[in-house]
Design brief:
about 15% strand, 2 domains, four-stranded antiparallel beta sheet, alpha+beta, about 50% helix, Chitinase A, domain 3, two-stranded antiparallel ribbon, about 300 residues
Length: about 300
Amino acid sequence: MKSLSLFVIAGALWAQTAPTPPIVTGSLPNLPDEEVVATLQDGSKLTMADVKAVFGFLSPVQQQGILRDPTEFLHQWAVMRRLSDIAVERKLNEMSPYRQAIDQNRMNVLFQATINDTMNSFVIEPAEITKSYDSNKAKYTQVKVKAIYIAYSDTPATPVKGKKPLTEAEAKAKATKLLAEIRGGADFVKLVKENSEDETSRDKNGDFATLQFGDNMPDAFRVAVFKLKQGEIAEPLKQPNGYYLLRAEEVKVKPLAEVRDDIYNELKNARMTDWMAKLNRETTVQVNPKFAPPKDK
């Protein structure tokens, strides 16, 4: 049987010649792999196995094409295949720039195939996952945080509701004073209501967020929050426009069962990174200095 490589191109042709129709839901017909689904002009057969082998890597548009109108799709594919055969008869595949494009596409396909095959070859043992989990529990820690936010501005500003904005020094002093009151037994939520200038968290009794170690946040937040034990409050944390008082309401670690798949993928990716780094180190190229002069060190 001749190559099915142009099956992909048929999808592009279909997309160009057909108007944009509604989305089709469904799947390929449930036929045996050996069932012949089409006989082409040259007598070659296209089986259900051939179609399934290619369908998985078609684009969504191409998949829609074959689901919407299999007969028209396969006809367009047959046209593209004939055009390809004509190109080979005319030896266009041996001419520039077509030969280089074919070589480049072949290399791209084989490159990805090697990556996929190598990744699939890595075996991650259950013990490795458990060890990684035990060694990196901070990564899987969640901290539910309450906050008091004291804003400041060191530039002249118009008083709001008759209240002049605090300077940085005044905001720090106020945050320090509130921290002492809290550690002395004052009600945190009451102080939130009376002092916090973050309206969103203030309206929720100071509930700020449930933070995970990998969340996007300032490094100072990460350091302060993830060293807290449940019920502890951090020292006043300076940010560009204010000071935060952060209290850990709840600290818990995600169970291994919940993050097992993530750890498995991380370990596989780490193996792949090491494998690629080794391959990169072992690959040498001697370049003509007339083409690429040595870089200044």
